[in-house]
Amino acid sequence: MIWPELFEDFSSFIPENERSEMIKAFYKHLTSNDQNTSPKAAGHWSTLELATLRPQVDPEYLKSANDEHLCIKLAIIEWHYHNQSL
């Protein structure tokens, strides 16, 4: 893995018993009716995505992950495309 610490943070949000199917687990949490769960899942997803889009992690670029509405939209769209490739 290129960024094991980023993946660790990403996967730490998902309970261990759900980690065997991370994409499905994230979808469950992204679409949760719990107003705390969905934004947190989206934040973890988006942080990993934004951190790995460039050859080196850009802390300024990662600040976009603080925008809850952007993160939820980004995570749902990306989940869709990841799921299509499975």
Automatic annotation (TrEMBL):
Question: Which Gene3D superfamilies does this chain map to?
Answer: alpha/beta hydrolase
Q: Mind listing the GO molecular function terms for this protein?
A: aminopeptidase activity
Per the record, GO CC terms?
A: cytoplasm
Query: Quick one: a GO biological-process term for this protein?
Result: proteolysis
Q: Which InterPro entries match?
A: AB_hydrolase_fold, Pro_iminopeptidase
Name of the molecule in the record: Uncharacterized protein
